[in-house]
Structure formats: C-alpha cells, structure tokens
Amino acid sequence: MSHAQFEVLSNQAVAICGAFYFIALLAHLAEWAAGRNVPLDADAAADAAAVSGTASAGTASAGSADTLVAVQESTEKMERFARWGLVATGVAAGVHLVAVVARGLAADPIRVPWGNMYEFTLTASLVVTIGYLALYRRFKLAWLSPVVTGFLLVVLMLDALLLYDPVFKLRDALQSPWLVIHVIAAIIATGAFTLGGMASVLYLIKERWLRNQGDPDRTPRRVGYLDRVPGLVQLDRFSYRVHAFAFPIWTFAALIAGPIWAEAAWGRYWGWDPKEVWAFITWVVYAAYLHARATAGWKGRAAAIIAIIGLLTLWFNFVGINFFFGSGSQHSYA
Amino acid sequence: MSESPDERPDDAQYENARDRAATVAPLAPREFLRWTWRQLTSMRTALILLFLLALGAVPGSVVPQNAVDSLAAARWRDQHPSLTPIYEKLGMFNVYSSPWFSAIYILLMVSLVGCILPRTRVYLRAMRARPPKAPRNLARLPEHRTFTTDQEPDEVLRHARAALRGYRVDLAGPVDGTGSIAAERGYLREAGNLLFHVSVLVVLVGFAVGSLLGYKGGVLVVTGGQFANVSSQYDEFTPGSLFSVGSLEPFSFKVTDFDVTFDTGKRNFGLATDFSAGLSYKSSPNGEVKTARISVNHPLSIDGTKVFLIGHGYAPDITVRDTEGNVEYSGPVIFLPEDTMFRSSGVIKVPDASPKQLGFRGEFYPTTGFSMETGPTSVFPDAKLPLLSMQVYAGDLGLDDGIPQSVYALNTDNMKPVQKDGKDFRVDLAPGKGIIKSDGSLIPSTVTLPDGLGTITFNGVSRFVKLQISKNPADGVALAGVVLALLGLLGSLFIKPRRIWVSARREGGRTVVEVAGLDRSAGGDLSGVVDDLAGKLENRMSEDKA
Ligand code: HEM
C-alpha cells in the first residue's frame, strides 16, 4: 500500500470507528432506558444470586408475579444492551487503532502518528477508550459507558471537522527519540486525566442531585441514570485512582522528557514558552488536586472542581495555545 | 485519605494548634509568630499557594517575555504604548523573575520546608514503631470477616503470620485460647512522599543556581562569518545574576557553510529537511582548529558551553557606491524571515554615504512570485529566483544620538523617503543578470539612485544561521531532582499503607477467627485484601484438617 492509500485508510477508519461509537452510545442509552424499570436492588439481588449460584433474581422487589416478570425482562434487556454497547465499543477501539497506525504509515518516511493536533487528539481519544475498556470490569464502569462513548463520538467529530490536517512530514525538531517518549507519555496522561475528569464531573452532578433530592424515602419512583451512578465515595475513589495513575506520567512527560528534548533541540531545558507554561500550570493544578483530597474542607466537591480545572488547562494547552498564541510558541507546530 | 484523625498526625497537629492559637487573645508576639508559622505550613496554605503559583504563571504565557523572545517583547511594547508603563511596573515582561512571582514560590518553599521537617520527625518515629495492637472490637472496623474452624488458635495464627508476607507482624498470645496478630505494611509510602517534597526543593534550588550562574545568548552569523565568545558579539545576551562575563569560555568559530534541502513534493512543499551548518572552531585563541557539523537536536559542546543551530535565513550581499564609484558599504545584510516561504524583511544602513546618509527598508523574496492580491511574495523557501524590493530613505540615520538602535529597524525620524517624479522611489534588485518581467522589462542587479545619491548593487545571496549559545552549570541538579521527585511520587502514590489484624479465640469448642483491615492511604480499597486473607486462611484450615 502506498502512503497516500494509508492516509485514506486512516480517514475511513476514523469515520467507521465514529459510527461504532455512535452505535455503542445508542446501545447504552437503550440500556439506561430499560433500567428505569429495574429497581436498584435488583442489581444487588442478581449479584447475590450470581455469587451464591442460585438463580432466583428479582426477589428483592415486592410485588405481584407480573411486576416480577416485567422487572426480569427489563433486567435482561439492560444486560443485553450493555453487552452490545460494549462489543460495539470494542470494535470501535480496534478500528480506532487501525486509524492511528495507518496514520503513522501514511507519512513518508513512516513515523509515530503524533505530529499535529489532529493526530494527538486521535491518539489521546484512543487512550480514553482503552483505559475505559481495561478498567471496565475492575471498577464496574457500566455507569461510565454513555459518558465515554458520547464523549468519544463528539471528540472524534470535532477532531475530523476542525483539526484535520493532511499527513505532514515531521519538522527537524520533531525527529528525535525523545519526541516519541515525551509525546506518548503526554498522550497517555491526557487520556487518563480525561477519564478521571469524567468521574469528577459525574461527582459534581451526583452531589448536587443528592443535595436537591428532598425526601429520600419518597414512594417508589422510576430509577434514573443518576441512581445507578455509584456513590460519591466510589466516584471520588475511581477519579483519584485514575488521576494518581496519570499524574506521575504527566510529571515524566512534562517535566523530564519534555525538558530533555527541548535541551537537545533548542539548547535549554526550560524556557517558559507558552506551551511549557501551561504544562507547568496543569501540573501544579493536579498537585493541588492531590493535596485537596488530603485536606479537610477541600475533599470531595472542591477536589472534583480542581480536577476539572486541571483538565481544562490540559486541553487548553494543546488546542488553545496553538489557536491563540500561534507563532508565539516554539511549539506551535504541534 | 482515611477520615480518622490518627491518620494524619501532622495535619491533626496543625488543626489542633490552630484551634488552640485561636483561643489565645490577644496574641503575644511569640504566639503570633508561632501562629503565623503554623498557618504558613498548613496544608491549606500550601494548597492556596499552589493555586497562586498556577495563576501567577498565566500572564507569562500571554505577554511576550524579555527572556524568552526579546524581539517580540519589544514589538509588543511598541504596539501598546499606554499599557507598557503599567506592565513594566507589574513586571509583566519578566514574570518568572518578578518580585511577586518570586514571592509566591519562596513562600511555597518556606511552607514546604516547614512541612517537611515536622513530617520527617514524625516519620522517623513511626518508622520504628510496631504495628498497633488489635482493637478490642474488630467488628467495628470497616473491613471485617469472621469464620469458625476446628483448628486451634495457635495453628490459625501461625498460618496467618505466613500469609502476611511483606508485613511487619506482631504476635500476641495465644493465652487461654485467645490470640491475635497485628500487621502493618507500607511504611515506605511516607518516605516516598517526603522524598518527593525534598526533591521539589532540589529542583527549585537547581533552577535558581543555574539561572544565577549560567547564561544564554543568541547570535545570527552569516556563512563565512566569524564569532568570538565575548558578550559584545551576541545579538541577545541573558546572563544570570551571578554570572561574570569574564568567565565566558574563550572559544571562537567560523561558520563555513550551511546546507538545507527544501522538500518539493506536494505534501510537504517547502518544508526544510535536514539543515546543518559546518563550523571550524578553536577552544582558545591558540588552540588547534577543529571542525564540526551542527544541526537541530545535534549541538556542539565546547568546554561545557553548547552551540545550537536553531534557525536560518538569507543575507543579500549588497554594495552601495557614491556617484564616483567609491564603495560606501559592502557586505551581506541579514533579512529576518517572516513566513514559511522565507519572505524576509530587513534594513540596510549606510552611515558613510554622501551627500546624505542612506537607509533602505524592504523585503527579500528567495523565490519571487507575484499576484495581484498580494503583490510580490515568496513562493518557495529556496533561493531560486531572488528579488530584493526596498524603499529608500535619505537624511540622518540617528546613529550618533548615543541611543542604541536595533540593526533590524530603521529610525526614519530624521529621514525623508527619496522621491522620483513625485513618487516614493523603490529599488527592485535581482542578482546576476537580473530578472526579465512578464512585460519584458528587466529587474537589474544595479540601480542608480535619484538626486546623485549613488548606486546600489545586489551581488548575490548569502545565508545566515541563528545560533543559540548557552551554559547551564546546574541543569543536571534540577533534572536529577525531577527524576528523584518522580521516584518519590511513585512510592507515595502506589505504596499502599495498611494494617491488618487477625484474632482467634476458642468459643464453644470451635475457634472463631476474625480478620479486619484498615486502609491508611488515599483511595484505597481493602475489601479485596481482607477477603483474600480470610478466604486463604479458611481454605488452609479445612485443608489441614483433611
Ligand atoms: C512545591 C509545592 C508542593 C508540591 C508540588 C506538592 C506536591 C504534592 C503531591 C503531587 C502530592 C501527592 C502525593 C500523594 O498523594 O501521596 C503531595 C502530597 C502531600 N503534600 Fe505536597 N506538595 C507541595 C507542597 C507541600 C507543602 C508545603 C505541604 C505541607 C503543608 C505538603 C504536604 C503534603 C502532604 C501531607 C501530602 C500527602 C497527602 C496524602 O497523603 O495524600 N505539600 N504533595
């Protein structure tokens, strides 16, 4: 295959994986719609049944045999849709990977596909998918599915519509092994921070929702999405875990690999270039997040807000800086 | 972070101290100092200072910085005459060395020291401590499992002890059929955290020392040109406060040649690939001459000072003569690139011209193209069809005012545009045989100026390289600090400190075993660990029996 054909393949793969993310999103929305008829503790009952090996799900909710059957049907529907969504996301991830790899093969000479904003976003969003799939079982991430798939769909669309650039050869300054190391670390951290940020956003939403909810033992009502989003403690813990994973990687990318590369290319480790300034700001904000979680009065809500600020600075850095500061940054080719 | 107060002795200590301090009124000076210190070294203050640091860094990314791009900063000041004095006062052009930014990070450093010292003390004590005894009521702990077995308690505890590998374990009993194990692990987490915070200090110190003792300079050198490492030869020179100019390494070099290939393919049209410059250098005036090639990512290091190739451009070679043919100026003049196709702009100053001083200001196009919308422009970065197009000024260049002038700007306060037939006179020059335009007219290599001002000739195109020369004696320290910080951080984030207790007692002919755990880190989840241990013990017990 020629380089140009790989570029076409990559573009097609982006379109196809976008379609699969869309299918996944629909499946997950259907899952949560079906879930409205499933009482919350049916889950627990089903879990208990699965653990003890007895097959008597749905015993938890009181009611006639009719409702029991209805609940069971909805439960099955929910599980089916969830599975479909997950399969669609898995397929999307595979195609997404093809898109990234083909993008690298499209360049002449072939290279790592992280030469510009389009490619960076394409790869960082793949990291989000992979992180989500990898953690799905361990953290029971069903609640995150609609958020992740919706996010990926939107980001890929924006990426293809606004940031698209034809394949370019790398500038001299970018031809260094440190580029590979620095950028892949930055991309992994960005993907992970994004995933953690989603949990922080949900934390704020759920916290507000809990506060506004009047009487918790109101008569039975339908079970919405937010009912199924885990409790604040678990959300906070998940968010922290992901951030704690991403923070050292970011530290490495921004404060070790980046400076080493900059020294080789421009003769200084650190030059307070706008891109470097914002990488530093992001780092400091996330350090503040880790501190906030350990400080009375700042845990929880305030920490979640700080995490979101951190994410905004992170994304601003590589989309915003290029738009607003343009040639003012030595990094403006990124 | 667990909520129980004993988890954070240091923080709890701060909180208590603050409460106590708050009730002492009015504050005696000593109390006040103490109170201030405690405030300064509290986590909350650290948090706020971190925020201030992040916020304080922002303006430096918006306003051009002297130390980053002094040309851009100067241009900005020209364009914003009313804001400039205010910004100067606020240190907006030197944010990262401004008093207020320094104040933030110095406070942060003080806070950091004030935080590290007591924590180190607490840690050293805790490091030698034994795991605390099992609480009387294990069932009260958040993670807790119970099972019964026929095995004797000492058998159970023996197995439990074996299963708790990697823990610091204390065994109590069994006495009268009741015994317990207290186990703890993850002591290194706090060590990692302390290492991280100490390393942050190391980085800051390395940074400070480096910027005090080092320097950074930039210079543009035309190929064939020489450079000697003295401060007056630099176009831009930023020494650290403690840097003495006398300690510049006495090297010198000549830029022998410059190589660049521009891509002509459709995809990467005009992109410079592999550009490199040849240098012949001497480390001292009497040293032997050596040669080197430098390119992006491949600098030359001479006795700890590094020479980087960071850019390039064109320097048209010009000769200006008076009407009698006497040379008033001759040599390459650097034109600074303005776009990716190397449309470049520059000025030529001829102070020795007679009858009046001459100044030229205009643009250079390496491969000239023309369109009605843009006028002349450059369509390719290589020098395929060079054209120099300039406006001519005559009068006083203002070089004798004693005010230093940029070589890239023309001060026309006391100069008038030269005119011919009532219009401003432009010179268009092409080297060699010139260029024949589409209308058949010729752009020559020499033009005679009106009013007996002489002639100007475009002899040919030279190139210049942009070099950065810098010395950073303490960069290694800062870098080592960051690496240590990362190690500490990994320990701090991923070592899980936890306590496990197992108790076994005889009750009604059987042994009741209780397993419980307490997580002492942020975001830990012990349920799996306690499940595991309880499950393992229970299996072991029934196996042994069988
Ligand atoms: C330059 C300033 C500072 C930076 C960049 C910084 C950074 C960090 C980071 C990234 C962590 C996370 C590690 C973890 O969660 O285990 C942390 C934890 C911590 N920092 Fe700092 N810190 C700074 C200053 C301070 C100061 C001044 C204090 C003292 C009040 C402090 C006290 C702590 C404590 C107690 C923890 C442990 C929190 C926990 O257990 O989760 N730090 N710091």
From TrEMBL, chain A:
Report keywords, A-Z: Cytochrome c-type biogenesis, Membrane, Transmembrane, Transmembrane helix
Membrane topology note: Multi-pass membrane protein
Q: Where are the transmembrane segments?
A: 12-30, 84-105, 117-135, 142-164, 179-205, 242-262, 277-296, 303-325
State whether keyword Transmembrane helix applies.
yes
Please report the stretch or stretches of sequence annotated as the Cytochrome c assembly protein domain. Answer: 114-323
Which cellular component terms (GO) are annotated to the entry? plasma membrane
Where in the cell does this protein reside?
Membrane
Q: Which GO terms describe its molecular function?
A: heme binding
Q: Could you mention a single GO BP entry for this protein?
A: cytochrome complex assembly
Q: Which InterPro entries match?
A: Cyt_c_assembly (IPR002541), Cyt_c_biogenesis_CcsA (IPR017562), Cyt_c_biogenesis_CcsA/CcmC (IPR045062)
Asked if Nucleotide-binding is a keyword of the record, the answer is no
- What is the protein name given in its UniProt record? C-type cytochrome biogenesis protein CcsB
Q: Which organism is it from?
A: Nocardioides marmoriginsengisoli
TrEMBL record, chain B:
Q: Which UniProt keywords apply?
A: Cytochrome c-type biogenesis, Membrane, Transmembrane, Transmembrane helix
Q: Residues in domain ResB-like?
A: 43-523
- Pfam families for this protein: ResB
GO biological process entries: cytochrome complex assembly
Q: How does it sit in the membrane?
A: Multi-pass membrane protein
- Where do the TM regions start and end? 43-62, 100-118, 194-215, 476-495
Q: Reply yes or no: does the keyword Ribosomal protein apply.
A: no
The record's subcellular location field reads: Membrane
Source species: Nocardioides marmoriginsengisoli
What's the protein called, per UniProt? Cytochrome c biogenesis protein ResB
Main localization is membrane
